[in-house]
Each structure stands twice: as structure tokens, then as C-alpha cells.
Design brief:
Shape: globular
CATH class of the largest domain: Alpha Beta
Number of helices: 16
CATH architecture of the largest domain: Alpha-Beta Barrel
Number of domains: 3
Largest sheet: 9 strands, mixed
Strand content: 15-25%
Radius of gyration: 23 Å
């Protein structure tokens, strides 16, 4: 007898095939049969009128810290995610020596968008090395399946301590880091991740360690993947990274290479397309390169206590160094204000391009200013004859930096975003689930893709969109037997209503360790999510009896661009 039988479902196999109405039988965590007239099961679900697809594979998450106290990696499972790839951009918890734990957390506090107090209160340090981290997760259990990158910044901190964010590495230090990459790959890492982005800073504006790496260091670590013949290289590039530099790194690596983040910036309209041209050129040279794109607008909620929107500006360095305690005095300084305005006036690629019409007041502290809410900073500033930046700072100072703003930063031109989403070398990604959580929540990116871009905008057939969220992700990373519905595949599944699927409006929760806040978006139209055959979520969200059915993925595949390949276990 089967464990579960889902009957009368409209089945999308994840490979882009036309859907068929069929029953799906599950036993021992795997799909064992598809068709009609199947043997009975201990549990039967009538899915008439609903669609069944493989669970979403989220290839860009930052759950590395959160998952140590929240094994369910909320809210991703209720948003249809059954596999999360963690450790993107080089931001990881492991390896980490006990003496460097606070240093590591202080590095993460800005990029994870989480208070240092929450990180200190929440992280369970049951590990030091990267292999021990994977063992720790496997021992505690996880809700969704997880795969983990080795993070470049953590490697530097392990080898160099506080110097990791201050200087170039020596030959011996590079050799030690390379050895740690090999150790991690042997233990089951999904690959190596890094960043050169100017936006990526730790506490007090200290650059994330990998930003101090030389080309020699980048190439030495990349070559470890080629030597081992396994792993994906993930690079979050800076705004001025040249395509030729990425191509050279991909060539040295000799493995799948994922460049992030390819987002459309109306202030520099050619930038995203230059990225994709560079990736196409690399593929023409035989390099297995892809660009990570997003189906969501990059939209931040922020206050001037945590102004991540501006932190990539060179003129913002004094504010980062001043911290929250000294920020107010600096915000009142005319010279500081002018330096920021001067930099914003230069049309270069950055996360905020100075479009104040896309910055709005969300919530004021003082009721007398309630009329500001919902209006753009550009319009409000014009009414008072001020520069928008001066107006924003004046209001923030008057309200003790508690005014809440929202800014649509990138991906606001839907025609251009649609082109990126359909590009043959793009990977739909960049949810950042587990990071920036005080600013936005795109953990439901997959539901947004299906609901908004497919149902409302008719961007592509549903079966093609599902393929982009499932088997294309599995193929990139070499995740075997996932991202597809077929006999023998793992039963990672999402049952949904195509007529209503999507994500709800953002709500703020105060459920981080120590009462810290984060944004959350509920699911719409999701009727069930299964991880390895266990129902982890339904229409009400994560089930109380969900348990921890996920697996820590440590075996990946040797693949060709057109197949899922054959399993290669860690040596």
C-alpha cells in the first residue's frame, strides 16, 4: 500500500511538458507511480481542479544563521519552496573558530538585515568547520531540503581573523583557504560563493572579507572546483565588474558559474544587458555561465536607523562608521548631505539611482504628519521647495529616525524584466530569503512568478515557468531526482490553484530571537507542500505536525547542459 495518493491532479512534470491529468502515488518519500487506477494508499487527496508541480527550488537564500534556531527555514516552505540553496554571496557561518564567532556575526548583521542581538541570541554554535556545520544540520533535522555553499568571506575569517577585512592574503593564507574549499567540497558543499559588491558591508561599514581578495586569490579558490570536478561557483559582482573578468574566473573554475545580480536599473539601462551579453559571450567560448535574475521589484522598507538603500554609496562611508549613535549628527551636516547628493547625481550603476519618485513614506511616528503616508518623497519635497534627500533627512531627524520609507530600487520596468526572465541564459533567483528581512521578503518569489508573470501578464506558458523554478534549478546545481515529477524522483511537491496562486501583502512580525522584527508575505492559492513525501504546509501555512522531513543535500551530479546527469557522491 502506498503512503499517499494524490488523485485527479493536473500534473506538471517540471520538464516543460504539457500537463496531464493523473494520479500520483508516493511511498518511502519518493514518487512510485503516475497514471490511473493505482493501488490504494493510507492517505488519499482528491486534487480535482488543482495543479501539481515539483516543489520550488530557491537557489539564492541566506538561511545559514536562521536555520540553526529555525530548522523549518520559515517562511519558505509555506511559499512552496522544498529545497533552499544557502550561503550565497560568500556569507556563511562556517567555518568559524569560537574566538571569531562575534566577528562573524558582526560581519553578517548588515547583509543579513538582522540585529546583532537577534543573531547573538539565536545562533546555535554546534560546529566549527564546514563539514561539522553540515553534520550539525543533518543531526538537528531541517524542514526543507538544504544545500550549502562554502562562503569565501568565512574562509578568509577562519584563516586571517580580523585581518580578513583589512588586507590581501599571503600565499600561505591563499593555500590554506584553497584547502578548506577542497575539504568542503569533499564533505558535500554545493559549491563556492563570493562577492565583490560595494553594497556588502558588515557592522560599521567594514567591507565583507572577500572584497579584499586579489585576482590571484579568486582564481586559486576557483581552481579548487575544477580540480575536484564538482561544485557551482556563485559570484555577486560589483557594479563595475567587467564581463571579461567573470569569464576568466569561470574559465579557471571550469564548472557551472552563476553571476548575480542581474537587475534592471533604469538609471543605467544598458547595464543588465551588458551582463547578459558577457554571459552569452562566455557560453560561446564553452563556459557554463548563467545570470541570476529576479521576477520581483527590488523594494525595500527602511528607516534612517538602518538605511541599507544608501550603504553602497562611497559618500555614505562616514555614516557607516558613525553607526546609529552618531548618525543623527551626520545627517544634519550640510557637507555630508551635499557629498551624497553629488554622488547620486552621477548616473552610474548602483542599488539606488536617485529616483525619488519611487521612494514613499510608509508610516510616520507623529500623527500630525499622517498626510505624508503613501506619498512620494519627490512630491513632498517639491511642495516644500527642498531637495528630496534633504527633505527625507529633515523628516527623519524630526521623528528620531523612526519614519518608515519604502523604495522601489530596481526591476521597476516590467518590459525589461520580462526580457530578462525569458532570456535563455537566465536563472530565476535572488529571493534573498533569510536576509534583508527587516527591509523586504521575497521568499515567495516563485508564487509571484506563477501568479503575476504567468497568470496576469501571460509571459510564458505555465509549464515553462514551472520548469524555470524546478528542473532548471536542479540541473544547474546537479541536484539529482528533484525538480521533476516522475517515478523514482523524490516527492517534493506543491499542490496549487493556478487561478489564485500568488503571494500576499507584506506584514511585519516580531518573531526573531530577542523579539526582533522581519517582514513576511503569506501564500495564496497553495493547498499543500510536501518535502520527501511529508506534508509540511497547507493553505493555512506550515503544519504543526510538519516535523523536519528535509534532507541536507551532499551528493550532486556530473551533468551535461541538457540532462540531469548521474550521481557523483563526495569522494
Amino acid at each position: 500500500m502506498h503512503d499517499l495518493l494524490i488523485t485527479h491532479a493536473r500534473v506538471y512534470d517540471g520538464l516543460g511538458s504539457a500537463p496531464v491529468t493523473a494520479d500520483v502515488a508516493i511511498a518511502g518519500g519518493r514518487i512510485v507511480a503516475l497514471g490511473s487506477g493505482l493501488d490504494p494508499a493510507r492517505e488519499t487527496i482528491d486534487a480535482a481542479g488543482l495543479a501539481l508541480m515539483p516543489g520550488i527550488i530557491d537557489s539564492h537564500t541566506h538561511y545559514d544563521a536562521q536555520i540553526t534556531w529555525d530548522p523549518l527555514a520559515s517562511p519558505s516552505p509555506e511559499l512552496g519552496v522544498t529545497t533552499a540553496v544557502m550561503g550565497n554571496c560568500g556569507f556563511t557561518l562556517a567555518p568559524c573558530k569560537p574566538a571569531d564567532r562575534d566577528l562573524n556575526l558582526r560581519n553578517l548583521t548588515h547583509v543579513e538585515g538582522m540585529s546583532l542581538e537577534s543573531l547573538r541570541a539565536g545562533v546555535n554554535w554546534g560546529f566549527e568547520s564546514f563539514p561539522q556545520y553540515l553534520d550539525f544540520l543533518q543531526g538537528q533535522g531541517v524542514g526543507p531540503n538544504v544545500a550549502a555553499y562554502i562562503g569565501h568571506s568565512s574562509l578568509r575569517t577562519w584563516v586571517m581573523g580580523e585581518d580578513a577585512s583589512k588586507r590581501a592574503a599571503t600565499q600561505d593564507e591563499i593555500h590554506a583557504m584553497r584547502g578548506l574549499v577542497i575539504e568542503g567540497l569533499k564533505a558535500g558543499a554545493v559549491g563556492l560563493s563570493s562577492t565583490t559588491s560595494y553594497q556588502h558591508n558588515g557592522e560599521g561599514g567594514v567591507p565583507m572579507p572577500s572584497r579584499l581578495a586579489t585576482d590571484e586569490e579568486f582564481h586559486a579558490l576557483a581552481s579548487a572546483l575544477g580540480e575536484m570536478g564538482r561544485g557551482t561557483y556563485m559570484m555577486t559582482k560589483s557594479s563595475d565588474t567587467k564581463p571579461a573578468w567573470l569569464q576568466a574566473l569561470a574559465r579557471r573554475c571550469g564548472r557551472p558559474f552563476l553571476a548575480a545580480a542581474v537587475l534592471y536599473n533604469p538609471g543605467v539601462p544598458d547595464a543588465a544587458w551588458n551582463d547578459m551579453v558577457g554571459i552569452a559571450e562566455g557560453r560561446a567560448q564553452g563556459l557554463d555561465m548563467y545570470g541570476a535574475v529576479s521576477c520581483c521589484q527590488l523594494k525595500f522598507e527602511f528607516t534612517m536607523r538602518e538605511p541599507y538603500v544608501f550603504e553602497g554609496l562611497k559618500s555614505w562611508k562616514p555614516a557607516l562608521a558613525a553607526g546609529q549613535g552618531g548618525a543623527a549628527a551626520l545627517y544634519a551636516d550640510a557637507a555630508f548631505r551635499q557629498s551624497v547628493k553629488d554622488e547620486l547625481a552621477i548616473p552610474v550603476r548602483r542599488i539606488f539611482a536617485g529616483d525619488w519618485s519611487k521612494v514613499h513614506v510608509v508610516m510616520v511616528r507623529d500623527a500630525a504628519r499622517r498626510a505624508y503616508e503613501g506619498k512620494s518623497v519627490a512630491a513632498l519635497a517639491a511642495a516644500e521647495g527642498k531637495h528630496p534627500f534633504d527633505w527625507l533627512l529633515d523628516l527623519s531627524l524630526a521623528e528620531d529616525l523612526e519614519t518608515m520609507f519604502t523604495a522601489v530600487l530596481l526591476n521597476s520596468d516590467e518590459d525589461q524584466v520580462a526580457r530578462l526572465l525569458k532570456h535563455p541564459n537566465s536563472i530565476v533567483s535572488l529571493s534573498d530569503a533569510g536576509a534583508h528581512m527587516t527591509f523586504f521578503c521575497d521568499a515567495g518569489f516563485g508564487l509571484h512568478f506563477l501568479g503575476y508573470w504567468v497568470r496576469e501578464k501571460s509571459l510564458m506558458p505555465l509549464e515553462q515557468a514551472i520548469r524555470k523554478l524546478t528542473s532548471e534549478q536542479a540541473r544547474l546545481f546537479g541536484i539529482p531526482d528533484r525538480g521533476v515529477i516522475r517515478a523514482g524522483a523524490w516527492a517534493d511537491l506543491m499542490l496549487f490553484d493556478p487561478a489564485t496562486v500568488g503571494r500576499g501583502d507584506s506584514v511585519r512580525r516580531f518573531d526573531l530571537p530577542g523579539g526582533g522584527s522581519r517582514l513576511h508575505t503569506p501564500s495564496r492559492g497553495v493547498h499543500g507542500v510536501w518535502v520527501n513525501g511529508v506534508r509540511i504546509a497547507d493553505a493555512r501555512g506550515v503544519r504543526a505536525d510538519a516535523g523536519r522531513p528535509g534532507q541536507v543535500l551532499r551528493e550532486f551530479t556530473a551533468r551535461s547542459p541538457d540532462s540531469l546527469g548521474t550521481t557523483v557522491a563526495p569522494p
